[in-house]
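Deliverable D2.4 — example input (structure tokens):
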């Protein structure tokens, strides 16, 4: 319960710091630059821990995998559901934010005066698509993995290292234990840094508003309102469709009968992890088999985050608009959707995953690291509705996985078994 409350309080403190910072930026304008060092300190602390955090977190989670019943079939069903729902949420987000430009009628010329590092290497445009993929996922020298600018490459190495450790059996256990210890230590360090987050983020946001002007606040407001609208559409519309696909009319009835508690808990706690026990109880009432429930819900809390995918699209398009970068080509659209999928599906498995997902966005698209707080604000203001889609979405996903694994009559058989 203490962890749930701390997550909730942290979100409140961050929102208050953003509000105070925004007001200060509007009132004092460029004079808010005096507090910029406090914001820079927060950024430097994040940049300092990002590389070991990613490595230990990902490698540890894979190195310590355990066995699961009916592993192959269940995992195939889980992957299918995760992929389809994430793609749908990404497309919905892209359509929505393409219709409603968050920075429409906003003067963004000031961005050039404070973001001195170019976001785009002009020579990179000449690289072929396959060449871009190679550069995006690999580096020519191991030491380059220690740069915060090569996050996706570091993630690929961490996945390979974790899988190799798990597949080494007994010989790999000492390494697996070391990775677990390293992950625990890094989580503690993240906790220390987050104590300072409200001050650091508030100061940096005040500086951004003071230098870019209060017009950007309208962009954040439009992002928040649009996200709420799409959340309602996805929650009531698509969740109902998913429940129908899983069990027909009975599936819709059973889902909504048991969905209220997980939904309220997600909004109240802003933590998918904290909702795991509640979601487990809910999906069992929905008739999901125990082995599917106990595999799907914990795994989904870490890797299946439709709300984060939706938010990833918003963050990328927000930066594209801010920097005046073209996103009309099919390659740009596919890249935006793909990176958003990674931000939600892969980054969710990492403690501090939102921060790392944002660094991934900056790394892949070449935006300067200094703009991290700009999209970190988006993460904070959409936290509650995003957690709703992330966490409550796992319950209806568990129903769809049951449909794949158990067959089309799984729900009727479950309901009959309860009545017997």
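Example output (designed residues):
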């Amino acid at each position: 319960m203490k962890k749930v409350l701390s997550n909730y309080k942290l979100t409140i403190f961050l929102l208050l710091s953003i509000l105070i910072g925004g007001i200060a930026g509007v009132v004092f304008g460029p004079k808010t630059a005096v507090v910029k060092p406090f914001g820079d300190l927060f950024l430097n602390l994040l940049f300092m821990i990002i590389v070991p955090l990613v490595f230990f977190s990902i490698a540890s989670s894979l190195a310590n995998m355990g066995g699961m019943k009916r592993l192959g079939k269940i995992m195939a069903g889980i992957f299918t559901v995760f992929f389809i729902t994430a793609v749908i949420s990404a497309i919905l987000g892209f359509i929505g934010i393409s219709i409603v430009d968050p920075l429409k009628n906003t003067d963004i010329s000031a961005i050039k005066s404070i973001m001195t590092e170019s976001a785009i290497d002009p020579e990179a445009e000449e690289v072929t698509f396959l060449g871009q993929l190679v550069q995006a996922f690999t580096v020519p020298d191991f030491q380059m993995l220690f740069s915060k600018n090569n996050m996706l490459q570091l993630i690929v190495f961490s996945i390979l290292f974790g899988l190799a450790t798990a597949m080494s059996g007994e010989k790999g256990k000492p390494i697996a234990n070391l990775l677990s210890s390293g992950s625990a230590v890094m989580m503690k360090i993240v906790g220390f840094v987050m104590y300072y987050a409200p001050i650091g983020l508030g100061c940096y946001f005040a500086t951004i508003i003071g230098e870019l002007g209060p017009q950007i606040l309208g962009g954040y407001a439009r992002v928040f309102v649009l996200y709420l609208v799409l959340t309602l559409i996805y929650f009531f519309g698509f969740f109902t469709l998913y429940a129908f696909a899983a069990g027909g009319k009975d599936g819709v009835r059973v889902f909504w009968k048991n969905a209220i508690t997980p939904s309220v808990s997600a909004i109240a706690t802003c933590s998918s992890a904290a909702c795991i026990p509640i979601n487990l109880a809910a999906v069992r009432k929905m008739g999901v088999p125990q082995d599917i429930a106990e595999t799907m819900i914990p795994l989904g809390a870490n890797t299946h985050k439709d709300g984060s995918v939706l938010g990833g699209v918003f963050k990328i398009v927000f930066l594209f608009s801010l920097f005046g970068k073209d996103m009309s080509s099919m390659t740009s659209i596919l890249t935006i959707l793909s990176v958003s999928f990674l931000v939600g599906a892969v980054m969710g498995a990492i403690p501090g995953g939102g921060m790392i997902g944002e660094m991934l966005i900056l790394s892949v698209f070449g935006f300067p690291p200094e703009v991290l707080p700009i999209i970190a604000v988006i993460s904070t203001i959409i936290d509650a509705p995003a957690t709703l889609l992330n966490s409550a979405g796992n319950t209806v996903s568990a129903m769809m996985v049951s449909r794949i694994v158990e067959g089309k009559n799984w729900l009727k058989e479950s309901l009959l078994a309860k009545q017997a």
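The chain has 17 helices and no strands.
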